[in-house]
Design a protein that fits this description.
Layout (H helix, E strand, L loop, with lengths): L14 E7 L3 H12 L4 E5 L13 E3 L11 H4 E5 L1 E6 L2 E7 L10 E4 L1 H14 L3 E4 L3 E6 L4 E5 L4 E9 L7 H4 L8 E10 L17 E6 L5 E7 L3 E8 L7 H20 L15 E6 L14 E3 L15 H17 L5 H25 L1 H9 L2 H11 L5 H13 L4
Helix pairs in contact: 1-3, 1-6, 7-8, 7-10, 9-10
């Protein structure tokens, strides 16, 4: 699906209500919601064409519908998973069904980012937003009642507000004095195509229908995964690094992640594709959540959403649902004229959950095998994970269960 592109030669001279920089999940959502409220909205994207490819695991818990109205998974989701298949270094697997308290499936939508991001952009243009591609912003200047952006060609764009949705290493934040001490984890991912998938009504023959795969133990401070899509498998590994690595350590991380991908593929009887036609192995950063940094300038004229704001769940590195939700929250505060309250609103939504997830991650990474045996493989723990995915339970409850289990591992 191609988003509608509207040409307007004099767009640079116009004062917009809001300019959103970056057409990913956070930016697309914010532009959509602002345009739907009647705001004159300009969405700028660095890529020269849309859809643009973006490596991503692509899992979105369906519970997001409780937070963001208007989502239509039938239009952008390849399929849904309701099971998780866990393993330890490719072995000792356990298959767990994710369920709500009522016993109904807790769904996670599997999306491919070109399709999902384009759907959001299309929603924005359908509501009157304008999209410009091939625009690389290099400078931002805040005045009392407006913000001016300058691109690499020297063109300027002016708006009452600017939303930075330009990703983990975007420049809107740092150029505005926000997110100056960013840290990143790293992920590597390959998308392996296969014939006769979702469009023919069947799953990959090597995989359990309805399941996503998570493997632990091979990656310190991380995990590997296989996420099924309609015509490919998203296979990757990620690591939340405790500190910025040296170039040599960075290379070692890459080797470790590639090895983890091999392990998780071998666990289901697959091998890494080789040869000149093999799909590329992509690397991308995972921004850290700090919970303390402001996400808007003092004037409230510039806001950050999604990966640019570091709203990534620290245990699994999950970011799409939080990007969408932060984009919607940013739009709400823009429309209400309360942008100076945006940072606190994001903290109120995510801080307790993210902080608990970070503490759970520390416990898991200190004692990974014990945590796998006593937590991941435990039926009660798996039931709780299903309720977390369904939005019925909180990571703080999961954290409490883990501590109780570790105190009495054989009780």
């Amino acid at each position: 699906m191609m988003p509608t592109m509207i040409a307007e030669p004099k767009a640079a001279q116009k004062i917009w209500d809001v300019i959103v920089v970056g057409a990913g999940p956070g930016g697309g959502t914010c532009a959509w919601k602002c345009a739907a409220a009647g705001w004159q909205t300009l969405l700028l994207e660095r890529a020269t064409t849309l859809p643009r490819y973006k490596p991503c695991g692509g899992g979105i818990p369906a519970v997001i519908r409780q937070s963001v109205t208007g989502l239509e998974p039938e239009a952008f989701a390849d399929l849904s998973v309701t099971k998780l298949r866990h393993s330890w270094k490719g072995k000792d697997p356990v298959l767990a069904t994710m369920e709500t308290t009522a016993g109904t499936p807790a769904e996670v939508w599997m999306v491919q980012r070109p399709r999902f991001d384009s759907w959001l952009t299309e929603k924005a243009t359908q509501n009157g937003a304008m999209v410009r591609t091939g625009v690389r912003i290099v400078a931002i200047t805040e005045e009392r009642d407006h913000v001016t952006l300058t691109d690499a060609e020297g063109n300027t764009y002016t708006a009452r507000y600017v939303v930075g949705a330009d990703g983990a290493k975007g420049i809107i934040g740092p150029k505005s004095g926000l997110r100056l001490k960013r840290q990143y984890g790293i992920a590597r991912e390959i998308e392996i195509p296969f014939e006769g998938g979702w469009e023919e009504g069947r799953w990959h023959p090597k995989l359990e229908p309805g399941a996503a795969y998570l493997d632990y133990g091979t990656v310190k401070h991380g995990y590997a995964w296989i996420f099924p899509k309609r015509n490919c498998l998203s296979v990757g590994a990620g690591m939340l690094l405790p500190k910025q690595p040296t170039p040599e350590a960075q290379r070692e991380v890459g080797t470790t992640l590639r090895h983890a991908i091999d392990i998780v593929l071998h666990s289901v009887g697959l091998t890494y594709p080789e040869g000149e036609n093999a799909p590329p192995l992509w690397a991308h950063p995972i921004p850290y959540w700090t919970g303390q940094e402001p996400l808007t300038t003092a004037s409230g004229r510039t806001l950050l959403v999604g990966d640019a704001a570091g709203v990534v769940q620290p245990l699994f590195g999950e970011g799409i649902q939080y990007a969408v939700r932060s984009g919607a929250v940013a739009a709400e505060h823009l429309i209400a004229g309360t942008t100076t309250e945006y940072t606190e609103a994001i903290r109120a939504l995510f801080a307790e959950e993210f902080d608990a997830a970070a503490r759970v991650g520390k416990v898991f990474h200190r004692t990974p095998y014990l945590s796998y045996r006593l937590g991941v493989k435990n039926p009660a723990g798996n039931r709780l994970v299903g309720r977390v995915m369904a939005g019925e339970a909180h990571f703080a409850i999961l954290e409490k269960r883990i501590y109780e289990r570790l105190k009495k591992p054989f009780g």
